[in-house]
Amino acid sequence: MTFRRLCSLLSHATYERDLEDFVREILSQLLGILAFYAHQLTPSPSDPVQMNACDQFGRLLSTLNELDAVLRARCELINSAQLELLHCLRVMLATRGAVDLQKPDKTTTPISFNDPAVPISPDPVSQTDHPLIQNLSEPDTAPCSSGSERPVDPALQEIFDQLNDPLVPVRGHALIMLSRLLESRDQCVLGHEERLFKMLVQHLSDMDSYIYLSAIRGLAALGRTFTDRVLQAMLGRFRQLCARFHSDSNSVQPPGCRVEYQLKLGEAIMRTLRELGEMAPAYRDVVLHTVSVGTRDPEPLVRAASLSNLAELCRLLQHAIAPVTYEIFALIEFHLIQDSSASVRQASANLARSLLLEERLPDWLAPDVLRDLNRLLSSRAKIERDPSVLEQIDAALGELNKCARNSLFSKPLSVESLVKEIRISRPI
């Protein structure tokens, strides 16, 4: 009866986020209780009491089937482990305990987006998406299929075919359609995350902007849906490119191609963080580590782009950047003083300016950081000779001066501030 009420609630209700957490907790408890009692089932034809208990539990099979269909329609309420547990319970009840819940057929190994040699495997959710009883075809009448891959939706298959087209407009249109599917979180993309990620990353190396800009948009949409896996994979690839350039100086790939690819990958990472919104601070440390690796790259363009990405990260995180302000100031000081490239020094001054975009002095910036930042910018303004770098330094000093004045002095009186209102709460 409890499972039927839960199915009815999930089918007809539209609830808030706190009620979603309550339903998720109730579902987890019910599945755990049912798994405990179902594990005690041992089919014994000679014991009528045990057979009667198996039959009573078997009556739950239709309810569990209905619950499985409802949960697949509302996939945000259940994770892959709970969905697999529900599938095992359905199998166990359908076989009256003949299949043991605690004896899986085989172990699965996690798939990494970073390893191109690993074959593509479907999502764990899709591995449980098959009927309880399957009709096996004869060996001589039908080819043997693995049964582990989720069938491809016709719309998604058309996109895959167009991505292999030699014409640039066709491939660009396919990437745009794929981005729309990912942005709308269409169910047809579930189970094909690895394949989609590899295709989008592959099209980043295209020289045509119609292709690689659409690929960046698709990676950002994919990262918003599967953040933990996709964002970590992109950050890992970015670090690998820096490490590979340091370790293998005789690479066959031209340095220009590597730099362009790395810049595009960095743009995809930052766009993913912008899509995350309030969830972006959760990935602050790993993104900061990757960006700091990019600031040590031998190529000036990569160093400048990494500092610009860090400035964008400061604008996104705001107060959440407070625990790492000393590390950010160390990067500003090092590149503004010692870097030989004007573009890198300009990006470093822009990073300093990004810390001071509020009306007043940020309360999350330590006083000693503000003092040292003012001294650094003032001294570099007297020494720097490049006009583009001087422009950014002057802009940063202007922002610092404005924030300090707004924090120390009150705003001048105006006509609006002198107007007084008299309100009578209880007129006679």
Overview of the molecule:
The protein starts with a helix and ends in a 10-residue tail after the last helix. With 428 residues, it is an all-alpha fold. It folds into three domains: 2-94, no CATH class; 152-294, Leucine-rich Repeat Variant, CATH 1.25.10; 318-411. Helices cover 64% and strands 0% of the residues. The protein contains 19 helices and no strands.
By oligomeric state, this entry counts as single chain
Annotated CATH architecture of the largest domain: Alpha Horseshoe
CATH topology of the largest domain: Leucine-rich Repeat Variant
**At the first level of CATH, what is the class of the largest domain?**
Mainly Alpha
Number of helices: 19
Distance between the termini: 63 Å
Note the run of SSEs as H and E.
HHHHHHHHHHHHHHHHHHH
> Which outline best applies?
extended
Average pLDDT across residues?
76
Rg over CA atoms, rounded to whole Å, is 29 Å
Number of domains: 3
Major β-sheet profile: none
* Residues in β-strands, percent: under 5%
Helix proportion = 55-70%
Q: Which residues sit in consecutive blocks of at least 5 with pLDDT less than 50?
A: 101-111, 115-148, 249-254
Task: Please state the structural category.
Answer: mainly alpha
User: How many distinct beta strands?
Assistant: 0
